[in-house]
Target: Phosphatidylserine decarboxylase proenzyme
Amino acid sequence: MPGEIFDNQGRGEASWRWPPIHPEGRKFGAIAGALCLLTIIIGWSWLAWLLAFLTAGVLAFFRDPDRVVPQDERSIVSPADGLVTLIQKVPPPRELTLDDGSGTKPLSPEPVTRVSIFMSAFDVHINRAPIGGTVRRVIYIPGRFLNADLDKASEENERQHVMIERPDGLILCFTQIAGLVARRIVPFVKPGDIIASGQRIGLIRFGSRVDVYLPHDTEPRVVLGQKVVAGESVLAELGEKRLIEGIAQ
Model:
């Protein structure tokens, strides 16, 4: 049940179930399913099979499984399912370093660690908040639709910046980036909303990427090539700076 507490002492009751489909995807599944039914009625069995696979693929793309979110105030959780493809020291996006007149302190232009998570068409595409707090900025920027795995996608692709401020004043920003096939970023939050760590905040349709900009005194707890899970995998712990290595096997 949503909101149930689980811990490492066995508290909670967990069982496998089919993941629900997010409402944003039900209309696409219904359209594909209707076309499949129409081809069956007409007698185009070969096309019906293709549309049946398409319907299943669309519903799978918009699946929205529950996640067990770590309740540690030091943890920054992954906002996306996918593969860690880039970890770099870069200046934060210019749009987040400017004073927008809202009273919220902008980010410093000094370089920070950016962790990029690439979502393939087979990953869950519901994005989640990496920390809890108040949404201070949601900035949409139109752009191109390059392969989201490319470094320059952070500056050239259609994207949306989200800034969250915790009650203690810590600010964390991340960017949803549309990809080669993705054509729309769908936000679930707006400035002023108070959200919890791991809460659903939006989605990007059909393959994309999310960049997370870590605070200055924090290094990632993930390595290149690692698979992460939105709302569950811990990307970093605030104030932690140490080398972490991995070996591909």
Summary: Residues 23-42 form the longest helix (20 residues). The chain has a mean pLDDT of 87. Residues 23-61 form one domain. The helical segments are 23-42, 45-61, 94-97, 153-156.
